[in-house]
C-alpha cells in the first residue's frame, strides 16, 4: 500500500475495465481517464475512495461500450476479448468436438514445422503460448469439472499485442 488510493487500486480498476470491455487497451484508457477525474476531485470529501474509483471506471467503461458497440456490429464471427497473459480469438469455422478428435487435432498441430508451445495462464485460465512458423498465438482452455470443455485459439496480432507484459488481475 502506497497511501495513494488510485495507485493502491489501479490493478483492481484495470481488472474491472478489462472484464467489462474485453480489451486491455480500452481498459488502460478508462483507467487513465479515471485517474484524470480522480485528480480533479476534492479527495478529502470522498469517504470510500476504492468504491468511488470503481464507480468512475465502471461508468467510463459503460460509456466506452456504447461507443464500441457500433464498431463490433461489423465484426465477423463471435467477438472474443484479447488474451491477457496472467502468468510470468476469433471463434473456428469448423469446430472440432469430442475428446478423441480434439486430442488428435492437438497432436497433429504439434507436428507442424516451427511449432512451439509453453504453458501459461491466459485470462486466468490454463492455456499455452504458441509460435507457429514464427507467428505468435495463444490457446486458452475452459475447464469444467476437471475436463477441458472449450479451447480458444487466437492468432490475431492486434489482440496479441498485450502478451509481452503480464497483467495483474485483482478481484
Verbal overview:
The longest helix has 24 residues, at 49-72. Helix 1 (5-21) packs antiparallel against helix 2 (24-39) and helix 1 (5-21) runs parallel beside helix 3. The protein is α+β, with helices and mostly antiparallel strands. It has a four-stranded antiparallel beta sheet with strand order 1-2-3-4. The model has no long low-confidence stretch (mean pLDDT 82). It has five helices and four strands; from the N terminus they run ααααββββα.
Please summarize what this structure is:
Helix content is 42%, strand content 20%. It contains five helices and four strands; from the N terminus they run H-H-H-H-E-E-E-E-H.
Amino acid at each position: 500500500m502506497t497511501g495513494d488510493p488510485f495507485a493502491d487500486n489501479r490493478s483492481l480498476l484495470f481488472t474491472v475495465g478489462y472484464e467489462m470491455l474485453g480489451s486491455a487497451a480500452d481498459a488502460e484508457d478508462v483507467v487513465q481517464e479515471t485517474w484524470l477525474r480522480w485528480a480533479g476531485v476534492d479527495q478529502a470529501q470522498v469517504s470510500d475512495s476504492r468504491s468511488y474509483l470503481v464507480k468512475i471506471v465502471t461508468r467510463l467503461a459503460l460509456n466506452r461500450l456504447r461507443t464500441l458497440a457500433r464498431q463490433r456490429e461489423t465484426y465477423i464471427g463471435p467477438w472474443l476479448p484479447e488474451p491477457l497473459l496472467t502468468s510470468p480469438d476469433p471463434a473456428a469455422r469448423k469446430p472440432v468436438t469430442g475428446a478423441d478428435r480434439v486430442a488428435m487435432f492437438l497432436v497433429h498441430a504439434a507436428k507442424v514445422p516451427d511449432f512451439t508451445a509453453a504453458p501459461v495462464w491466459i485470462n486466468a485460465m490454463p492455456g499455452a503460448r504458441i509460435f507457429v512458423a514464427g507467428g505468435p498465438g495463444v490457446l486458452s482452455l475452459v475447464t469444467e469439472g476437471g475436463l477441458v470443455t472449450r479451447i480458444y485459439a487466437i492468432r490475431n496480432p492486434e489482440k496479441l499485442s498485450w502478451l509481452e507484459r503480464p497483467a495483474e488481475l485483482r478481484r
